[in-house]
Amino acid sequence: MILDAQPGIEVVAEAADGHRAVELARRLRPDVCLFDIRMPRCDGIEATRSLAGPDVADPMAVVVITTFDLDEYVYAALRAGARGFLLKDAGPELLAQAVRAAAGGDALIAPSITARLLSAFAGTGPAQPRVQPIEPLTEREEEILVTVARGRTNSEIADELHISLSTVKSHVASLMTKLGVRNRVEIAMWAYETNRVRPR
């Protein structure tokens, strides 16, 4: 009801459990999937991994919501490929922002957990060392990397660095290619896990 009331957002399907949600998403190919962490038959993490995980050839945009403010849920959801993570008390405006951000290739994580999440990324290294890019990042790409890791949108980066929106998009695409990642969340995770960026 909240999303259907938002201009420019249309709910194309609803599902009673995770398996059905994955089936519908694969058939209908919506711009964004919105999953609860706790769903019958297949939870939100597994559903996200099925549609947006590392082994998915054509990943879909997923936003995960939950009533449980637990770090392991956040980390698991982002590792599974989610582009956004919200608590259910985030409110209609933030929910709509998260859906629109995911549809546009951006990521939105609930502000209440962002700082803690990034601290966790910086404080615990990955299971295996991150592979450094074969082709070194340019000075501008390093700047873009930091702003993406700080959660800035493309428009905010363009304003902050005084460059065009298309230039930002080009650099972000180049970063994804060089780092071997598929979305902005993974760029941010790479930046924190390689100590390119540290929590403030």
From TrEMBL:
Domain Response regulatory, chain residue ranges per copy: 1-103
Pfam short name (any one): GerE
Modified sites of kind 4-aspartylphosphate: 36
Lineage: Bacteria, Bacillati, Actinomycetota, Actinomycetes, Streptosporangiales
One MF term in the entry's GO annotations: DNA binding
Keywords: DNA-binding, Phosphoprotein, Transcription, Transcription regulation
Name of the featured protein: DNA-binding response regulator
Gene3D superfamilies reported in the protein's UniProt record: 3.40.50.2300
One of the protein's GO biological processes: regulation of DNA-templated transcription
SUPFAM superfamilies, alphabetized: C-terminal effector domain of the bipartite response regulators, CheY-like
Domain HTH luxR-type: 130-195
InterPro entries cross-referenced by the UniProt entry: CheY-like_superfamily, NreC/VraR/RcsB-like_REC, Sig_transdc_resp-reg_C-effctor, Sig_transdc_resp-reg_receiver, Tscrpt_reg_LuxR_C, WalR-like
CDD domains for this protein: LuxR_C_like (cd06170), REC_NarL-like (cd17535)
